UniProtKB/TrEMBL annotation:
This is Abasic site processing protein. Gene3D superfamilies: 3.90.1680.20. Belongs to the SOS response-associated peptidase family. One of its GO terms (molecular function) is peptidase activity. GO terms for biological process: protein-DNA covalent cross-linking repair; proteolysis. It comes from Gellertiella hungarica. It is an enzyme of class 3 (hydrolase).
Amino acid sequence: MCNLYNLTTNQQAIRDFVAATHDSLGNLEPLIDVYPDRPAPVVRNRDGSRELASLTWGMPTPAEHLKSPDAPDTGVTNVRKTWIGHWQQWLGIEHRCVVPATAFSEYGQTPDPVTKRKPLCWFALDDSEPLFFFAGIWTRWDGVRGSNRTPRPGTHDLFAFLTTDANDIVKPIHPKAMPVILTSPEEVETWLNADWKDAKALQRPLPADWLRIVERSRMLEK
């Protein structure tokens, strides 16, 4: 599952794409790699407006999957089983969000014979890595995030994005799943504002010819 993605764009491009009316993000760095349990830009419905804000990646973990009742929660980054009650509580428009990205990564299945590590493969819409969005959910949560070594108690605004079946580009690298990707303002509008019976139709693989593998070395040169 995707636990690392990249964003190389500016705030105005994000605001224009989603028609955001409020920006509480602060200054966005020109290139960021986003890891689990770290802050990232998210566009959400908030108090009657569409807000660009910084939230922490990882929704609350179902209680039965925590190591212990008092263990810090590192969060769930990818959500597939939207029919489970734990996730259904956040499928209404008040808890939906979209997550801007320009590329996402998955680990390959076969370790490198020299390093013994699985290779990290990056995917984007095309070689120019244009802006797209993951279909996500968010919530405000009180509790302890992080690890036993570095716990972070308090109130946290959290997000995750949905996954679905892998398409023919992602499947050879990661057969199980890929993120739910939105590529047009109309899809963003549906995800943020439509009834769930219509919005859930977007939890589908992106057509294979809309996605390609890109070179990480070239991304770092931007």
